[in-house]
């Protein structure tokens, strides 16, 4: 059974940064991810607020970070962590079981991220992959020249609406509140691009025969229903944190289900740290990277 000083679970921006910092501090560490490195970061069409880049796609940045990480640590992609067991060992405090192997480690950094939140609208599951999508960069190409709706009001929703518009789709933004939550510069870009918006509306049903043909909207102020024709429904309404492993370890969560951490990224469980979207705090790429650096350094000091 291989032994490590630090095992990082999740290879998103935070996990990769933690691996870089941990390796440069001289520790033996491993990053494990059940998918490809990058997680939801791979889906970001473009960022204009990441330091050092005027404009960069999530996939491009992930590939750069991955190349840097594997120079400093081991990286296992497509390997799911199924269980973390506390041990009685005074040095190696945990056994990490995966779909492929078992490992011993002195510390664990949880960078398990989150997944797309669903609308739970009628027809959503039925038309998934048939016009319903949660990833503009994955599926946007297929909707060039077609009418589509983007549901959501945060940064991600507006970024993806702009991306889809640039691809040549005819985009309408739908948001349940009377104003968007996204940063002002994104709202300004939506106006400049001439993207249509429908505020104070929720998607109650997604309709069609073989493929999506329309959505039923409910006015949140009057309760009135209306039908809006569309070929595609792109959904960006938040994320659900992946805390299954945290719960196994007895890690404390807040009311929203996110991991509670201190300023050193420590959880309430000794030698367990957490970073990124699974934690309480601002959901931003640069924040996850900073937290990864802090967690790796905290783990290093706790092992010294």
TrEMBL record:
Pfam families attached to this UniProt entry: Pyr_redox_2 (PF07992)
Biological process terms in GO annotation: removal of superoxide radicals
Cross-referenced InterPro entries: FAD/NAD-bd_sf, FAD/NAD-binding_dom, Ferredoxin-NADP_redctase_2, Pyr_nucl-diS_OxRdtase_2_AS, Thioredox_Rdtase
E.C. number(s) listed in UniProt: 1.8.1.9
GO terms for MF: thioredoxin-disulfide reductase (NADPH) activity
Presence of keyword Flavoprotein: yes
Enzyme category, top tier: oxidoreductase
Name of the protein in its database record: Thioredoxin reductase
Name of the gene encoding the protein in the UniProt record: trxB
